[in-house]
Amino acid sequence: MSTAPVEKYDLIVIGGGMSGLPLAQKAALKGRKTALVEKELLGGTCLNRGCIPTKTMIHSAKIMHHVRRAAEFGIVVGEPKADLRAIVQRKDDVVKLIRNGAYRGVEKIKHLHLIEGNAQFKAPGRLAIGDRLLESATIVINTGTEASIPPVDGLADVDYLTNRSALDLIELPESLVIIGGGYVGVEFAQMYARFGSRVTLLQRAERLVPNEEPDVSALLLDVFRREGIEVVTGAAVVGVRQAGGTVVVGARVGAQEKTFRGTRLLVATGRTPNTASLNLEVVGVETDSAGFIKVDNRFQTSAAGVWAIGDVKGPPMFTHSGRDDAEILYRSLIKGDSTATVDHRLVPHAVFTDPAIGSVGLTEAEARKLGYTLKIGVQPFKAVAKARAIGETDGFIKIIADDTTDKILGAHIIGPEGDNLIHELIIAMQVGATFQDVARAIHIHPTLAEGVNVAAGGVHREEGAE
Q1: Is domain 355-458 in CATH 3.30.870.10, yes or no?
Q2: Which listed residue (113, 349, 445, 460) is catalytic?
Q3: Which of 21, 39, 324, 383 has a beta carbon 3.0–4.6 Å from 118's, enabling a disulfide?
Q4: How far apart are CA 392 and CA 197, in angstroms?
Q5: CATH number of the domain at 6-147+272-333, please?
Q6: Structural domain boundaries of the chain?
Q7: pTM of the model
Q8: 66 is annotated as an active-site residue
C-alpha cells in the first residue's frame, strides 16, 4: 500500500484531450484547484494522431492532385513525386507547434497542475497515478479511444498499420490494403492513392461512409474509382497472412472467397474506448458492452462524483462535440447552470475527402422514418459558376425541410469546400431559420456558397404530397 500523502483537489480531469484540456483550464481559471492527468501528450488523439496530422498530410496529397491536373488549367509541369519523409516532417512540425502552445497555456494557469501518468481508481473520489494518490469529490474522465482491432484470423501475426502508425510511414507503400470504409478508411485511402500507392479498400458494408446519404456514398465511390482506388463493398475479411513482403487478405464477397494483396495493411474498423485500465468497477462506473462509459444528458456516470466527456462515452465522437461537452460540463459543474445539457444539441460532422463531405441534422431516410413529409432541394456543383471556374464540379448540396413548417431538418454537402459550406446551414438550423430565409439572403457572386442559396431556392414539395 502506498504511504504517499493524499493530494486533494477541487477537480481532477483524467485525460488532456480536446475535452479534458479546456475543461481543466477553465475550471482552474475560475480558482478551482485542478489536477489534469495525462499519460501521453496534451491534445489527445485529435492533435497528436487524428484531426490535425491527418488533415496536414491530406493537404499535401491534394496539392499533388492539383499538380497532376495542372495541364487542365494551362500550366505545364512534370509528374509530381511524394517525399513522404518531408511530408511527415511537416506534419510533425505543425503538430508540435500547436502542442507546445497547449503546454505553455497550461503552465501559465496558477491553479492547474499537470500530472503525467496513468490514472486508476482506488476508491470513490480517489485515484492513484504511480506512487501518488489524488483525491477529489469531482472527477471527470476524458480518456478517449484507440483503434479497434477486429478478431480476424492471422491478423496478430501481421505487421499491420492503424491510423496512428500510418501517419509515421516515411517510405511510401507500393500497395496498400485498407480494411474499413468509414471516415478514417476513406481519408487514408485517397491520401495514399494520391501520394502514389496502389490502394485497395475493403468495406464490410454495402457502401462507403454508410452513415451518410446514399447519393453521397455513391458519388464518393465514383470519385475513388476514377482516381484508381479499388473499392470492394460487401467484403467480410476472414483471414490475413504474411507472404514474404506481401500481406494477403482473404475476404468473403457475396458468395465468393476473394484474395487481395498489398505490401502494407491498414486496419480502420472503428474505435475502442480507453477504459480497461481505469479500474472503473471499484467506483461503480457502468459501461456498455463495448466499454464506452454510460452517461446521462449532463455527462454524469452511474457513480456519484464521476462524469465522462469526449469519445470515451461513445457517439458522437468528434473533436467539436467533445469541446462542446467540456463547455456544457463547465457550465453545469463550475457555474451551476441547471439548463446545461445535451438535450436538442445539433452536432454536425465532416469527412475530409476530396470532394469534402459536410453534414448536419437528419438524412432523408431518417426524416421519413420519423414521419415527416418533406420538401427537398438539390443543387449540383456542376451548375455553380465558381465550381466550374476552379474545375471542381463533383458533388451537390442537398437540403431537407419539413413540409409543414419549412424548417430545415438536415443538410448534406459533398463537393468543393463542403466541410466549410455546411456551416451556413448549421447556423440556419440552430436559429430555426426556414429554407426560404437561406434562399432570400443575397449571396456573393461568384462563390461556392451561391450553391447553398440556389439549393434552398430549389426546395420543393415531393410529388404526390398533399
Answers
A1: no
A2: 445
A3: 39
A4: 23
A5: 3.50.50.60
A6: 6-147+272-333, 155-269, 355-458
A7: 0.95
A8: no
